[in-house]
Amino acid sequence: MPLDFNVQIIEEFRTRAGRLGGPFEGWVLLLLTTTGARSGREHTTPLGFVEDGDRLLVVGSAGGSDRHPDWYRNILRNPTVTVELGADTWQATAVAATGAERDALFAKAVAAAPGYADYQRATGRVLPVVVLHRIRASDHIPPSRLDALADELVKVHDRLRGELAVLAEGLAAPGTPHLTVELRRRCLTFCAGLATHHGGEDAGLFPYLAREFPEKAEVFERLRSEHDTVARTLEDLRGLLARVEDTGPGELRPAFDRLRSELETHFAYEEAELVPLLEAAG
Fold first, then answer.
1. 3-state secondary structure of 72
2. pLDDT band at 128, cuts 50/70/90?
3. What is the mean pLDDT of residues 245-262?
4. pTM
5. Which of 129, 207, 215, 267 could join 105 in a cystine, given CB atoms 3.0 to 4.6 angstroms apart?
6. How many CB atoms lie within 10 A of CB 126?
7. Which burial class, exposed, middle or buried, applies to 66 when counting CB atoms under 10 A from its CB (0-12, 13-18, 19+)?
8. Who contacts 106 (Cβ-Cβ below 8 Å, separation ≥6)?
């Protein structure tokens, strides 16, 4: 959309809490505010969107242009964005879909808004599909808290290390029905706590630090990869937990030892890399 046309829509949107009138009557849009990849300044763009469960899809159609829109290039560098929809405003992490997932999501977007197919036919580039994952307020870390977050990160890791030690003792002890049930309860509580911790980092902390320290992109790529590896190990552990009353805790030991080793390596690397960044940003 031309810049002056965008300005009209943005003003109308914000004046009427997302309800567009006049020449924009019937349009259902969101406002996406990104951080410039080169300038570092905020830019707001009106965009159509498609709902996909609890996330939103936006397509980098640019009206069928042969050039990706600026907002798309911005999110590749700075994935933390602000979304305005109706009277609500929130932060989100913008993730560009790839491969088969992109194709499936584009088909979903075309089913909801057939005009996207026309835009795709008009250009030789593949129109990107970007998924907006809402960041819960409890997971967003404002800059004013970053100076304290370095200590908090280590404390969370130490608490998780302590729980791992307790679980290791339980696995080493002779099993009784009561102890086996308690071990299962503690393992499930630990898994849930770890998943919440990693989810908050992926949705809030990592995108913020990646924007502030773009030269550390490889660090965040490794940390996210390690989160995926730990998540798979947790799934293995949960599967064994479902049968622990029948098999006994001994069956859990190999999966638990693998998880503990992965986490110890992950925690040490994360602390070595992130604590200095948090202290510098704070």
1. helix
2. very high
3. 74
4. 0.50
5. 129
6. 12
7. exposed
8. 59, 116, 120, 127, 129
